[in-house]
Structure formats: structure tokens, C-alpha cells
Amino acid sequence: MKLRPEEITSILKQRIEQYDVETDLAEVGAVLQIGDGIARVYGLESAVAMEMLELDHGVVGLAFNLEEDDVGAALFGDWEHIGEGDAVRRTGRIASVPVGEALLGRVVDPLGQPLDGRARSRRTTPGRSSSRPPASSTASP
Question: Is the entire prediction scored with pTM above 0.90?
Fold first, then answer.
């Protein structure tokens, strides 16, 4: 049996259309400089202000200074373990902390992680901080 070029082309096109590869197009940068809980990160061209960043050792970063060549990030966690050249990944999430009655009386860090030894509550909702305080409900004299 001899295949014609049109048949080969048709078979190849069909196989290419059915081919599926999972790809992860996460934007990953590298730590250029680190000190006092602040990191300069290269390679995160699409990062936005107040975006949460993931680093090794469970360290979380918060993108602040968005410059042309690098991003300045405040680090939360054991940042002493982070070194120059370590990978930094964008999360696509803007900084938020859990809010709700389940957090009343709790001691939490700036990221909402419990520091009081009690389990993390699942009865909270994510909330964004606002730059504006809530309106006052008291009347002025």
C-alpha cells in the first residue's frame, strides 16, 4: 500500500490537532540582591504592585517597587534562608488577608497566618485592605 502525500499531510494534521501538552507559563524571576527583608528581583516584567510572590522555604514576597529592570519586594517569613539567584514566582494574586468573626481575638501575622497556636479558621473570607478608612458613624458636636 502506497500513501500519497495528501494522505500523509492529512494524517499529520489530525495527529497534531489531537496532541495536547500541559504547559505552565508561570513567570519566574531570580533574586538579585537581598537584605533586611527586602529583595530585588529580576525577570518579573508583568508583576503588579501589591502582588504576592512565592519564594523558596515558604517565604512570601509583596511586590512594591516596580522598576524598569527589577522589582523590589518585602519578604515575609524566614527570609534569611533566601539567597541571590533563588527563584521567585508570580502568583497573580493581589495582597489580601482573611477577615471575619473567626479572627476576633486571634493573633495573626500580616498575611493572616495564626501565631497563637490555634488552627487556621476556615470560616473567613479574603478581604483587601483599602487606603481609605471606613466612614465614621458618630456625629460630630
Answer: no
